[in-house]
Write a structure and sequence with these properties.
The complex is a heterotrimer of chains A (718), B (158) and C (575).
Chain A lengths: L12 H5 L2 H9 L10 H18 L13 H40 L3 E8 L2 E8 L8 E4 L9 E5 L2 E4 L1 H4 L5 E3 L4 E2 L4 E2 L4 E5 L3 H4 L1 H7 L9 H30 L6 H11 L2 H20 L2 E3 L2 H8 L3 E5 H5 E12 L5 H12 L5 H12 L14 E3 L7 E6 L14 H16 L9 E6 L1 H7 L7 H10 L3 E7 L2 E12 L3 H10 L3 E5 L4 H11 L3 E3 L4 H13 L4 E5 L5 H6 L2 E5 L4 H6 L2 E3 L7 H37 L20 H22 L8 H33 L3
Parallel strand pairs in A: 11-18, 11-20, 18-19, 20-21, 21-22
Antiparallel strand pairs in A: 1-2, 1-3, 3-9, 4-7, 4-9, 5-6, 5-8, 10-22, 12-17, 13-14, 14-15, 15-16, 16-17
Chain B lengths: L2 H38 L1 H4 L3 E4 L2 E5 L27 E3 H6 L1 H8 L3 H10 L1 E2 L9 E3 H11 L1 H7 L7
Chain C lengths: L3 H29 L7 H15 L9 H25 L15 H12 L13 E3 L2 E5 L13 H30 L9 H27 L9 E4 L5 E4 L4 H10 L20 H26 L5 H19 L15 H14 L14 H13 L8 H18 L7 E2 L2 E2 L2 H27 L2 H4 L11 H14 L14 H29 L15 H36 L3
Antiparallel strand pairs in C: 1-2, 3-4, 5-6
Helix pairs in contact in C: 1-6, 1-8, 2-6, 3-4, 3-5, 3-16, 4-16, 5-6, 5-7, 5-8, 5-12, 5-16, 6-7, 7-8, 8-9, 8-10, 9-10, 9-11, 9-17, 10-11, 11-17, 12-13, 12-17, 13-15, 13-16, 15-16, 15-17
The chains are: A alpha+beta (718), B mainly alpha (158), C mainly alpha (575).
Chain lengths: 718, 158, 575
Amino acid sequence: MTTKEPRTPVSHLGSNLTSTKTLLDSLVRLAPRSLLSNPVMFIVELTFFVVAAMAVYPPAFYPVASLSLRFYYVEVALILLITVWFSTLADALAESQAKNTANSLRSLESEVQSKKIVMEGDIRRIVVSPSTTLRKGDLVLLEKNDVVPIDAEVLEGIAMVDESLLTGESTPVRKAPGDEVIGGSRVISDTLTARVTVNPEDTYISEMIRLVESSKRPRTPNEVAVTMVLIGLTAIFTIIIVALLGLSITLNLAADLSVLIALYVCLLPTTIGALLPSIGLSGISRLYQRKIVAKSGRAVERAGDTDVIILDKTGTITVGNRQATEFIPFAGHTEREVGESAFLSSWHDDTPEGRSLIRLAYEDGFIPRELNALGVSEVYEFSASTRTSGVKISQGTGFMLPKGDKSSRERGRLRRKFEAHVEAGSVIAEDETEIIKGAPDAIKKIARSIPSNFDSLINKISSQGDTPLALTRNREAIGIIRLKDVLKPGIKEKIQSVKVMGIRPVMLTGDQPLTAKSIANEVGIDEYRPEAKPEDKYDIVMREQAETRVVAMIGDGTNDAPALAVADVGLAMNSGTEAAKEAANMVDLESNPAKIIEVVMLGKQLLMTRGAVTTFSIANDVAKYFAIVPVMFATTLPELKALNILGLGLNTAVLSALIFNAIIIPLLIPLAMRGIRFKPTSTMALFIKNALIYGVGGIIVPFIGIKLIDIALLSIGA
Amino acid sequence: MSLKREIRQTSLPAIRLAVISMILCGLLFPLLVTGFAQVLFPGQADGSIAHLGTSKIGSYLIAQNFSRPFFFQSRNSSLSASGVDPDITLQDAQSQVARISSATNITRDQLNTLINQHIEGTFWIFGYPYVNVLTLNLALIQSYQTVYQQLDPNIFRQ
Amino acid sequence: MIQPADFLTIILILSSAILAARLLTPHIVKIFTYAPSRLDRFLDPIEKGIYRLLGVDPSHGMGWREYFLSAVIINIFQMALAFIVFVFQGGLPLNPQGFPGLGLDLAFMQVISFATNTNLQHYNGEGVCTQLPNCSTLSTNSAGQPIPGLSYLSQMTAVQFLQFTSAATGICVAAALIRGFVAGSKDMGNFYTDFVRSLTRLLFPLCFVAALIFVGLGVPQTLDGYQILHTVEGSTQTVLVGPVASLVSIMQLGTNGGGFFGANSAYPFQNPNPASDVFQIFLMLLIPTSLCFVYGHMLGKRKEARPILWGAYALFAIDLLIAFIPNYSLGPGMEVRFGGFFTSFWTVVTTAVTTGSVNSSLFGNHPLVILSAFMGMLIQSTPGGKGVGVMYMVMYIIITVFIVGLMSGRTPEYLGMKISARDVKLVMIAFLVHPVIILVPTVLAYATGAASAIGVCVNCPAASTGFTQIFYEFTSAAANNGSDFLGATGNTPFFNISAGLVMFLGRFLPIGVLLALAGSMINRKRTSEIGLKTDSVTFTIVLVGSILLLVVLTFFPFLALGPILEFFQKRVNGF
């Protein structure tokens, strides 16, 4: 699994604004038919047509219109149209951003190369191409060390395939014709020919694209509910305006229809009405920017509700492998002896642990004299039955480079250091030496003598949360190596922020209880399950859900699929099995399990943004009332001018309110698209802060804004 | 279940309960209260009737028209909400003292004392003082029987 | 500004009402959880007898639909019985004044008025007789309609009867609604059982004691006819008595508000002194306040009563603040014994709990007091009418949790239950009912000329008292409040029928919709992880803010045309 930090957004507002395509798109969306899905904006457009008609032929609207106000009607109509356009612009921007991000994800997909078999007549030709170009039915060649690009069925050949990354099963699996090979697994011996069984986009890419096309995007439950509120408010304000119109006529209050319409549009929740679709879309975009593909917007929303988050220790909390940190000799042996023996035993060991042993020994200067003899050594591979590995060295000379992914610079440094040692004459060959390292209990079985403090030392190390590795030289226990789990950078803070938000992290690990406890304590997790099997995830999800909690989890192996399927938020790793990816409702293309925490934060941010803009939109109405009501009946009820607490111009007050109402939409587009920023704190603290900013602020801001616009209008003599 | 059937099923107990509740709430309850009230507080229950001698001359709680200068007068009926406000404010009563004094030759001090003896509506620091017109006038008549006998013998008729 | 002693009076009255309400709470909870009580020994046989007569199984649990239907159907039957009494009172016993029967439209309006706990009265209880004490001929109002009076039988078996049953219905609805929200509820309870128990265990005992206290304070209770007396000045006076105390007890305790007399609690026989005034205010507040506590108790989460109770009283405090901005002193349209203080205080309380009784003429109240009264009626849960106050508060909580709660970053939940789109829809419908049924008839009253027919100023925008009267009439009807400017003036077919419909819809539509909402809460998945704490002070503040915002946003232009305009006019005219 690779760990990458989220990349910066692929597209940003600036480039979108200048995009002609987006602009055109926003204009096309002004067609009344395409506004039908947005009731608030549809009504605003209707009012535009009414006011436009008033401007064209005022007498049709007597007594609530006047010929002398024609120019004014044109102004109002224009502002109304611009209001609608701002909303379609927000839609178009959000969609183009989402599509750009989605497309950039496609290219990320193509990073796995496949060897496609193309038949040209009778000649088989191999074409290397990205896995995303494969189609169902294509033939692919899988050679040793190849990564299986996509799920396929074996046609020819028998090979060992390592599925450990996907299923957690470390023993390679034998694959013969008729067997399925899983995308993401690795061939470790021999060669296979296989037929592709799925189209790459059939899995989640197609769903991903569907999600960012606003016309096809299914609305999430929360969006539907917010729409209900908007429709309800629209209905209320419609009644108000119709009643005011009726009263104005029957009581001869001489209100102008355009003013009533202005009040109507100002009262309508236009801000949230305009931005609601883009908020949802941008939420998904932000996931995409983090290389996470969501299959439904619903899952993103659900993520915000997470009560429990199930974290795999390995890969999420720790970097995934242990590292040697200390050589502890038994009585009669030295640290150097242990270090050098460890060095030798690990020379052929390509596991991260093995490499860390060599690094530690090297750093401490424990370069073994027998190094030149390693060339003729006999390697004892690690096996699950013995749970040990080691080496038997006969005499010999020469330098063998460590295998694995050490950089050439590192290899060079090691070689120079070694040669310096040799020149110093410190390397003395001896006869056969057998060094074995392994799990302490396994070592106990093969060692001829066990020091009296063996068990106590092992327990001590275990109790500190570290893993002890015992070492024998010629079947004599000479020391213990301390392996430490290494935390991922920043994980502690992430866990802390999750806890602050009231979410309970649960850690799963295959480690023994003491190790698990130590890691859990270190990162501040109170609940952990040691010696866990992949199936345990399912049990935990079910248990927490039975307690009515919302559970988020990550998974990659086939074993995880059932748990991913039932979890409220299931994030599958792209490196995982198809089964896992199918069962999950999100897939992280970068396969970084720690991202589950970001998913939760994004879910919260999405809901918060939606709530904030809704609250802001409704709170805005107070100021708009104070702007319009005083002048609505100015000719017949002059006493109401006392309500003009802003001191707006009699002729400009309505326009000011209307312009504010329109202009607030583009001003809030960036907020809608990036989501409101928040620091992880408790739900209540977030609530209080946002209620103050967007509720109280929503009442105050328009007072200031309308006044400023009014001053501007008066100064240009409107 | 269809709405029609539901309504039909509910109707029978509903109409029974309607009748029962009408008897309980509309007849039994007020009659029971009437019985107890008549025994416990017969005066109030019948309308706080004021007597002069043996004759009923009004209700303390209902304003009556006092037009003669030697009586305290009620508020103009159109000024109050009920039209039969039996009380006047202390200031109102005090402003009438001069008139009554000149009509009856009872000194202003005596009249003011009388008013102060019949203040109602206050309790400790709470409330605003007022006086009941009928109470005040009855007190006048009873305290200054000879005066009022001379002013209008009809008052003590019967 | 308010005098310190008066401020203290308010505090004392409110705190004693809240204290008494708290003390009453366990008793009410026992009634609706069907828990054993000391009253069982005496009341069980009676109640069982009633159930047997009805032929119902008192333990049968109803769904929201059945509960609601039962409530509506029984109310309709009760209205029908009262309708017969009203129309035929002329020929029925206990009619010492010989009042003729009510007109059909008036009877229609009045039975709805009393059965919906509104108690809007387009008649004068004592009639306006041309020749007392025989009232067979009545004076007419400005629209030419007679101003009818009610026989004692009508007062008892129509008015008092419906005052009891409408109060009981309201309490039942609250109980059913709460059950919907109680974790582990299987049903909404049994309407018949709730109805009978709320009468026998709550309303009868409390009203009986209250009625006797009222008699002690001077309220008449007799079946004798009006008394004809000779005053000291030699003129004749008719003293209007009757079974008043028993009616006053339920009309205040049941937040009904319909008076025995046309002047309601301004009439000295209905409200003889400050003591009776305070006691009536206390009674009005008692059960609506208690039901706030009951909510928390029945939920098993007592703290959840906090936003309902304290939110209600915070809004009430705001109402009071508005009402006491102007100087209050005895003015025209007020009673001396209540002065300016008790008049304003009463007007705020009576609209805050949607009782609707008055102790003054509304014409005599300052525009800001009227504005405050409007607020009480438009909000409907400060703490609101019997039962429905709690219901509306739950409605406001859900809408607040939904809109504002999103800002906490979680899908909105109440009591751990997710708020679905359907919930929001139901709440919006319930909220929408009010503006529709207030504004449509208000406009119609002008458009059809019905307003000018009763002498309400139409073509005089400069003096808008006319608009306030009409707007107030339908607001009061919709809120099931019952206080009004019109009184017997409103006895015209238009106002009778329109107000009747408004009251009926204003009562049963929100009840139906919100019972449906509560019904859907039964068996709903609940999470134990509460993100947004609805029992917190913060939430209560936000709730109060949202309620004010929603209600003010909805009605601001109309309040501006009514009391706000009047306020400015008075100020301009050197008020």
